[in-house]
Amino acid sequence: MGIRFNHSNSFITEHEYKYMENQIRIAHKMLHDRTAQGSEFTGWLDLSLHFDHDEYHRLLMKAEEIRNNADYLIVIGIGGSYLGARAVIEALNHSFYNLIEDDKRSAPKILFAGNNLSGKYLSDLFEIIKDKEVYVNVISKSGTTTEPAIAFRFFKKFMEDKYGKEGAKKRIIATTDKSRGSLKELANINGYETFVIPDDIGGRYSVLTPVGLLPIAVSNINTDEILKGAFQAEEIYTNENLFDNECYMYAASRQILNRKGKDIEILTNYEPSLSFVSEWWKQLYGESEGKDKKGIYPASVNFTTDLHSMGQWIQDGKRNIFETNLIIKELNKDLTIGYEDMDLDKLNYLSGKTVSYVNEKAFEGTLEAHVKGDVPNLVIELDRLDEYNMGSLIYFFEKACAISGYIQGINPFDQPGVEMYKKNMFKLLGKPE
Ligand SMILES: O=P(O)(O)OC[C@H]1O[C@](O)(CO)[C@@H](O)[C@@H]1O
């Protein structure tokens, strides 16, 4: 397993973890026995046992077809219906994936839509793709979410104008519920190929279903390895003993810190390509735990960039925060700093050192400073940033979230709070009942 969890700078004592052992055991039982609230949405827990291999095979064929025929894949979805795919695609691909020249790329550019209500964004997007070969993957579990539905209405027309009804039909793929919802109905009537979001997996837990797997596979990332890493994590993190389960140690650490007044968890990274992993993580934890006037507020920063903005607050502001550092031990690309005779920039003391080495020292120095500033720091370290570890990390965060939520005393699998804005918006828009 390529993931390690370190709590040596958490200010949590051994006995505090010991006091949590029983609660963890109970939460583990609630989750695994499927006796607790929300258990109807725990299909992700043992996905390997009921993974649909035939559908997955069909998905890989479709991904290949898209790779061979598209300049652009447009992924339409919001929240859990796009964040996971975007997180993995950005983490594992070239930092400038969409800017790689056409003759040097083996996969289409991937752009996202339906995750906002900006007419400017959509207009700009159509300007970019109007003369290109396009495939569309529209993703919505409910099939009724306003943002992707509006975007898809425009894309459906765009595709039909460009390719005709028959051509559009081949290039539009819908990922949705197996039988319900407007998107499923639209797909049936128009003859789009569909992939299923299982009933027992909610949006924010769906990255390892066709929701994430199709766009990720299109970008030429090895999804077999992602699944291998996730399924391995499924096995490793089944141990109900807190001290033998790093995933549970993370969940317990969060809850211990929260009870000590730490209301905000800041996920940090030192790699720009991980910034959308943080966005995915924020939805996972925010929608799962922010309930009944309780919950840790999940925030994120991208270091070292944000050390020059939020660094001040973290070092010196109100002490109601803790940090969880997502660290990559070894990267497959790096640069070595050169020597210059004049040394006008005074950097010769670093000549011969890699940029990663400097980054590593920035992390170590920051951790030491923030700990000195009374900020508990947790560390999740990945050996490498690769498919296998990304699969394991996804499962690690998903399971820790469920366990942490049960300990907190909420249902980690519903999201009643997000309905309020929708109700108001529909009222203002005059949506018929
Ligand atoms: O896949 P859907 O049903 O369009 O939902 C998208 C997102 O919207 C929410 O339902 C919140 O409104 C999230 O839970 C979900 O990830």
From TrEMBL:
SUPFAM superfamilies: SIS domain
Metabolic or biological pathway: Carbohydrate degradation; glycolysis; D-glyceraldehyde 3-phosphate and glycerone phosphate from D-glucose: step 2/4; Carbohydrate biosynthesis; gluconeogenesis
EC number: 5.3.1.9
Main enzyme class: isomerase
Location of the protein in the cell: Cytoplasm
A GO cellular-component term linked to this record: cytosol
Region forming the signal peptide: none
Catalytic reaction annotation: alpha-D-glucose 6-phosphate = beta-D-fructose 6-phosphate
Residues annotated as the enzyme's active site: 287, 422
Major location category of this protein: cytoplasm
PROSITE patterns named among the record's database cross-references: P_GLUCOSE_ISOMERASE_1, P_GLUCOSE_ISOMERASE_3
Keywords: Cytoplasm, Gluconeogenesis, Glycolysis, Isomerase
InterPro entries, sorted: G6P_Isomerase, Phosphoglucose_isomerase_CS, SIS_dom_sf, SIS_PGI_1, SIS_PGI_2
Family: Belongs to the GPI family.
UniProt-listed HAMAP family: G6P_isomerase
Name of the protein: Glucose-6-phosphate isomerase
Originating organism: Soehngenia longivitae
